[in-house]
Every structure is written in C-alpha cells, then in structure tokens.
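Case study 2.
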Amino acid sequence: MARHRLELAGATASGTATIELELERHRRELTGYCYRMLGSWFESEDAVQETMVRAWRSADRLEARAALRSWLYRIATNVCLDMLKGTQRRARPMDLSSPATADSPLDAGLPESAWVQPAPDARLRPETGDPAELATWRETIRLAFVAALQHLPPRQRAVLLLRDVLRWQASEVAELLDTSVASVNSALQRARATLEAVDADATAPAAANELEEKLLARYVDAFERYDIETLVSLIREDASFSMPPYRLWLRGGEQVGRWMLGQGSGCRGSRLLTTSANGSPAVAIYRPAEPGVHRPFNVAVLEIGDGRIVAIHNFLFTELFPAFGLPPQLES
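Prediction:
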C-alpha cells in the first residue's frame, strides 16, 4: 500500500498546524493498536497513515475535540478490518511445525505476509514514567501475544484490545463498533477463551534491568568473537531459535550451537548493534560483505527469563533496518 501524506490544501496555516499537531499526538498509540491488530510493523504504519488522511479530510465534521481520540480509534479499527479481509493469519515458525534439528535443510521460506513481524520499541513505547503502564505495554506488545492475537477473528481482536489492553468500557467499544454491549461482552468472552487455548509461549519480558543489560552485552561479545561455547552457555536448555522467512526452527542451546557452527557459520565475523523490539532486547546483525564493510542481515529479538535467553527470533528481512533507525552498513 502506498504511503500517503497529509493533504494540506484548503486549510489556513494556523488551522493546518493545529489539526496536524492534534492528530500527531495520537500517532504512537494508534501505531501500537494497529500493530497488534495486523501483526506487521509496515502494515501498521500504512494503517495509521490512512487513518490520519481520513481524519484530516473529515476534521471539519468533528464537533468536539475531546472526542478526537475515540474518533481516531474508530477510523483506525475500520482501516484494520478492511486490511484484514481475506488475509491469512500471520504466525511464528513454532506456530506452524515441530522443532527441527541443526542439520535439517532450510525450506524454501514463506513471504513476509506469512509472519508476525517485530516492531521497534523506540516508536511504540508509551511516553510515560508509570511502571504499571509500561509493564502492561511490555506484556501486550511481545511477539507471543501478538502472534496469539492472530488466532482471533478481526472484530474479536479489536474488542479484546480495546477492552483488555486499552481498558475501554464495554459501552464505548459498542459505540465504536456500532453494536450492542451484550455483543461486545460475548465477543470478549470468546476472545479470552481462544487466547487461553492457544499454545503460546507464556514467557513474559521482565522490566529491563542491569542483569538483562549485562546478559545482552555478553551475548554480543560472544557472537562477535564467534565464541559459540560461551554463547550457548547464555541460552536456556529449552530455548527456541527461529528464522523467518524459513519455517525451520530449533529447540535448545545444543541445537543452536550446532547450527551456528554448521549452516549458520556465514555469520562468523559479524558485527552487532543493540536495539529493542516488542518489549525485549534485540540485536541487528551485520554480516561481512567485503573488506571493511558489513551489511544488514537480520534483526534478532532476544527474550530473557531468569537470567537466561529463552528465545531468539531472527528476522531475515533487511527492510526492517530503516524502521529501527539502523545504519545501511557498517564500515571499519
């Protein structure tokens, strides 16, 4: 979908600045909502931009500025529901098959649209110092939760997000969706039951702390030295290791080590930059391309629990690098 730009023609300079500022104040939270609905960072950006365009074109019909937020959510929900018509649900490799072994051949891979994609924390994290709000955000932005949401029909997905994540009243959700409170409550009950039945990874990210930062630093150091024995020692015995667009995924540090020394040995000599995604630490991996030059290879999200790495989600989509504000290459 083409990325639109706000149409400014026909408005006064002062009116333009005012409505643009009012709309932009809501971009971050709307992007988080659309990302959870769609499971794709790029589609969520498109959905929010389309929401802004529609809001701009109809701004003269909004009687009360106090209603702007709910009005934007109504537009964003309709945009997402339209985008989800006829699409297959996005998933993670562990949602599609059993773990393989390090010597299993790579499959042909699936298109980007098949996978739940990571999202950069820097462009989604709430601008608040409230620890409770941040904890809720981290829990509901993690990859496992976003993947679990994809099992819900789109309208149930919207109801659950509005009620359980954004804490809207049932009457407010009913008004937004043009339905009854009883229908909202029924949809919420079914959505909660589906999520409970989905076999999603229950590991939730803990609040970032000094221990987590040290573990990330040790991981980066071991990877760049390609000290696989040390790297494996940081990984829990039952950790998962996935590599979209490939369906193949591994279970356990031993298999990860064998992979890194076997089919994955092309990563030897890589350089890493740290970032964060989906409430978890992440690294951008640049593989050697020519003398003194390293080019983007993948973004890996590291989930940490009890002082060990419990999941490594490698996303081999170099188009993610600009979304995370990462440089196009590294030079010695």
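The first helix runs from residue 13 to 24.
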